[in-house]
Amino acid sequence: MACSNSSLGCRLQAPDSQTSQLARHSHIRLLLSAIVLTIIVIPSWGFGAQEHLSDATVPQVANKPDVYERELQTLKDRVEALETQQNSILDDISQRVILGGYGAVEFESFGGAKTSFEGKLEVLIAGQIHDRIRFYNEIDLGIPDGEAEAEQAYVDLLIAKWINLRGGVVLVPFGKFNLDHFDPRRDLTDRPLVARQIVPTTWGDLGASIFGLVPWTPNLISTYEVAVINGLTDQFSPTDGGLQDAKSPLTRDNNGQKAVVGRATVKLADQYEIGLSGYRGASSPTNGKTITGFDVDLELKPRGVPFWEDFEFKGEFAHFDIHGSSTPSRLYGYYAQVNYHFWPSFLDQTFLGNPYTHPVFTLVGRYDHAKISTKAGSGTLTEDRFIAGLNYRPIENYVIKTEYQINNGGIERKSWNGFIASIAWLF
Amino acid sequence: MSLWCGSAAAWAESLAVIVNNKNPVPSLTKTNIAAMYRGEELHWAHGSRIKLVNREISSSIREQFYQDALNARADQQFFRPGTPVAVQSLIQRSDEAVIRFVSAIEGAIGYVNLSSVNDSVKVLFILQEEAD
């Protein structure tokens, strides 16, 4: 037998000898023992392991649904609790305090006057102290006049829909324009003559009022507000500002007699509104002069009515008598305005239309008239104003306005015609 | 509840006006709902404050709700009288989020697709989709 290179094979297959036979038997026994041991031990390890797993895991598996269900329920409860907490916080944040403001910057160019930029910025702070107590502050930061003042700063006790109590610096409930004078809400920059010379718009005063809402039918409601305030003073002028300077300076009453003012409205389907206002109060410290006035306002906003839904109509008439005064003795004025909202679809994909949901142009026409009568030598002053305007609102709270005025008269802009543009925003 | 679910397919585009399950008010009219979202109704009949939940302006469900309930565009704002402060509502961005909020906050009211309604809230009014 050739054994040239395999040492083990050579030894196993060595020529006969006693030693080699014994060694061979010894090797065979060792091998057999190993096999037997392997057969006995290894399966026992395997079965043992299997038996060990069964003992530990079967009860655990059996208990798992309960354990997992309990854990799942705990997690669900915690998520729900967190959601409730989050929603309560959201609710609190959204209802408790609102910080905002509005502003406007205006440019005007009239023949005979220097061109000018003017502006205003007002800070609004509103919120709830309680479910039934809310407050509102509107602070004029004094641009351009330089003195900050509270246009409104009051607190409401909300008793019921039909009766509530307000106290503080209240916006005097006289005329729709005074109650909705905010620049970003208006479609023309210049306020109507009646809201500048006759009704001293942005008219706030110290006092208290009751207000409420009475529904008559599902579509017909009335609102009212009656206020007792310090009232207008005798700082009026026939030629410069009408009753504008007669607004109370928010100090002590100059005559100790309170003025009573109120406004009531009827609203149909939230689209058509007519308002009636009245005012009566002493103006001078010596009680020689009493001011009485009334105002009628109208606003029509047809919605869901084909063709007409793009139009708005609004107007206001106000009249004041100053008893015991000759300069002036009587003031009245009115305005009528029509708005037409439109949007050319070819602008949809331009920078004017593309990023916004409902951008809109508004074409505006307005006629104003004011008359201030005096019993003095200066006689009666009147002014008429025609305005054509166009504005662009990419969103409701931002507007770029342009307008051209034609004036004729002797009160405010005399007979100067001119151009006004402005940007107004609300946040 | 099964009634709502059963009819969900038929009212696939109808909207449900929902309130918290603890709200004792049994039903509402469209006029009530409009008055709430216009800020004219501030409190529930039982006294607690009405907390309005709204959807984002760009959502079709808000467009439908504003059109049907308020006769207004989706971006129409309603203001507290005598102020430029808009009537406050909390914006949620899905039916599920509206339902979660309304089910957690007692004075809350919101609107969702009728098919999304579940037992965690109470339906007080259904704005039915008008047939074409």
Quick structural summary:
The complex is a heterodimer of chains A (427) and B (132). Chain A is of the alpha+beta class and 427 residues long.
Structure report:
- The complex is a heterodimer of chains A (427) and B (132).
- Chain A contains three helices and 16 strands.
- In chain A, strands 1-2-3-4-5-6-7-8-9-10-11-12-13-14-15-16 form a 16-stranded antiparallel beta barrel.
- With 427 residues, chain A is of the alpha+beta class.
- Chain A is globular.
- Residues 1-23 and 39-53 of chain A have low confidence and may be disordered.
- With 132 residues, chain B is an alpha/beta fold.
- Chain B has helices at 2-6, 30-37, 60-70, 95-104, and strands at residues 15-20, 51-54, 90-91, 108-113, 121-127.
- Chain B has a five-stranded mixed β-sheet with strand order 3-2-4-1-5.
- The N and C termini of chain B lie far apart (28 Å).
- The model of chain B is unreliable at 1-11 (pLDDT under 50).
- The interface between A and B is large, with 45 and 37 residues.
Largest sheet properties of chain A: 16 strands, antiparallel, barrel
The H/E string of chain B reads: HEHEHEHEE
Shape of chain B: globular
* Total number of helices of chain A: 3
Taken in chain order, the helices and strands of chain A follow as HHEEEEEHEEEEEEEEEEE
Which pair of chains has the greatest number of interface residues, and how are they split between the two chains?
A-B, 45 and 37 residues
Low-confidence stretches of chain A: 1-23, 39-53
Give the averaged pLDDT of chain A, no decimals. 84
Helical content of chain A (DSSP H or I, runs of 4+): 10-25%
Number of helices of chain B: 4
Largest sheet of chain B: 5 strands, mixed
pLDDT average of chain B, as an integer?
87
How large is the radius of gyration of chain A?
43 Å
Characteristics:
heterodimer; A: 427 residues; 16-stranded antiparallel β-barrel; 21% helix; disordered N terminus; B: 132 residues; alpha/beta; 5-stranded mixed sheet
